[in-house]
Amino acid sequence: MHHAHSVIVLDFETTGLSPNMGDRAIEIGAVKLVDGQVVETFQQLMNPGFRVSGFIEGYTGITNAMLSRAPSCAEVMSEFAEFIAGSPLVAHNASFDKRFLDAELARIDATYTESFACSMLIARRLIQDSPSHKLGDLVRFKRIENDGTFHRALADSQMTARLWMLMIDELNQQGIQTPSFALMQKIAKTSKHAVKALLTQNVTK
């Protein structure tokens, strides 16, 4: 059984919203947490083999000049597949990052075995009073330490990791010691008004 505080938190920057429409990853950032401590990070730009739009350059600060010097997606993703082997995965709005992870790994015939949890869905249940559940808004609402960089993969995964640990700490305060990764996934799927009952059932005796 996996504990929720030993996970890999990841974030992709991409050329657009949909790998089905030919969009590619251009940066991956990830933070490896073991017992709630950052033990390793991964950050790499990757060249998708075509120029990215001015919008994406402006949004991420990742320029075509930077990408032209970066290794290929295939090279970076084969390294990343090794980095994530055996760890449960977390991302903010995980359905987006999972689509790109699956698509990029499929291109190099690589897979991963562990499951994903979405910190955004969990925050919607556990931090119901936040004005929105976008990463930046949660960071401000909970005053999570950050360096002011948004939409770069490592900075976003570091902030997501801090948000993830903050939610685990709040569960600890409610009497749920060392929540399992499976419980976090269950919280994500539970309706807002049923969360309290779920948490009460999981208080560590």
Automatic annotation (TrEMBL):
Q: Keyword Glycosyltransferase: yes or no?
A: no
Q: What is its EC number?
A: 2.7.7.7
Q: Does the keyword Protease apply?
A: no
Q: Name one Pfam family in it.
A: RNase_T
Keywords attached to this Swiss-Prot or TrEMBL record, sorted alphabetically, are:
Exonuclease, Hydrolase, Nuclease
Q: Which reaction does it catalyse?
A: DNA(n) + a 2'-deoxyribonucleoside 5'-triphosphate = DNA(n+1) + diphosphate
Choose one Gene Ontology CC annotation of this protein and give it: cytosol
Q: Which residues form the Exonuclease domain?
A: 6-173
Broadest EC class assigned to this enzyme = transferase
GO terms for biological process, alphabetical: DNA replication proofreading
Single GO molecular function: 3'-5' exonuclease activity
Protein's job: DNA polymerase III is a complex, multichain enzyme responsible for most of the replicative synthesis in bacteria. The epsilon subunit contain the editing function and is a proofreading 3'-5' exonuclease.
Subunit composition and interactions: DNA polymerase III contains a core (composed of alpha, epsilon and theta chains) that associates with a tau subunit. This core dimerizes to form the POLIII' complex. PolIII' associates with the gamma complex (composed of gamma, delta, delta', psi and chi chains) and with the beta chain to form the complete DNA polymerase III complex.
What name does UniProt use for this protein?
Answer: DNA-directed DNA polymerase
